[in-house]
Amino acid sequence: MSIKNYKPRTPGTRNMSVVKYRDYLTTDTPHKRLVSGGKQRAGRNAFGRITTRHQGGGNKRKFRMVDFMFDKKNIPAKVEHIEYDPHRTGFIARMVYRDGERRYMVAPQSLKVGDSILISETAPVTPGNRLPLKNIPVGTFVYNIEIQTGGGAKIGRAAGNYAEVVAHDAGYAQIKLPSSEVRKIIDTAWASIGEVSNPEWHLVNIGKAGRSRAMGIRPTVRGTAMNPVDHPHGGGEGRQGRGLRRAKSLWGKPTGKGQKTRTPKKYSNTFIVSRRKVGKKRSGA
Prior knowledge:
Elements: E1 3-5, E2 17-19, E3 35-36, E4 63-64, E5 77-83, E6 92-97, E7 102-106, E8 116-117, E9 130-132, E10 141-143, E11 145-146, E12 153-155, E13 163-169, E14 172-176, E15 182-186, E16 190-193, H1 209-214, E17 272-274
Antiparallel strand pairs: 1-2, 3-4, 5-6, 5-8, 6-7, 9-16, 10-13, 10-16, 11-12, 13-14, 14-15, 15-17
């Protein structure tokens, strides 16, 4: 995989880059039975109120039914195609099980057409295979991790992401997450071996506003550019500092710049072994 950098022939293509999908994908036609249409919510809930800002518009997408439950155990499957999914940053693999059923799964790095995967407690520890955390050795990189047994993959699903198994203790596996947090997860939960595909996605420069709009991302306005009635950072003649000790969100809650935003009494606090590192990254840290 590699990145293509455009020559600055126009202002829009200056510094713009894309992933060379043809180096990795093997088809541009999804499996019809695993695709469905749908309405884009544009960040709105069932009442039509915006709950996630800066979403809307964008190109039409078809939804790929990706398997996160992995309830088809002890049946080998072969990789038929590596495909693009417009709803996620990693690539997906079209799997054909020995009984003829086809399913999509999030593809790990190094997975190729013709490779076999197995979902089993006795599966080998090789990329793409899936097994309980108690059977995964310390130091192994995993993705598609369950939080509760049988609850489906919840952690480590974005491009290039992985978590590391760092310890096994008292019926729990300790997992170091991409955020640097170390968390306990019951060791009967399942996880897939490897790292999510398309790691170069983090290096892509969108380059121009039009491409961002095509992705369904609407503009973000700085709080300091607003009026005082619209944002805690707003107001003042000309360009002003925020005038506050801590940065705040639109609703007055602490945000960004290394501030702790986790709910103090969150239910999962008892499972956190080591909190994630926040703030600016310093050399040698």
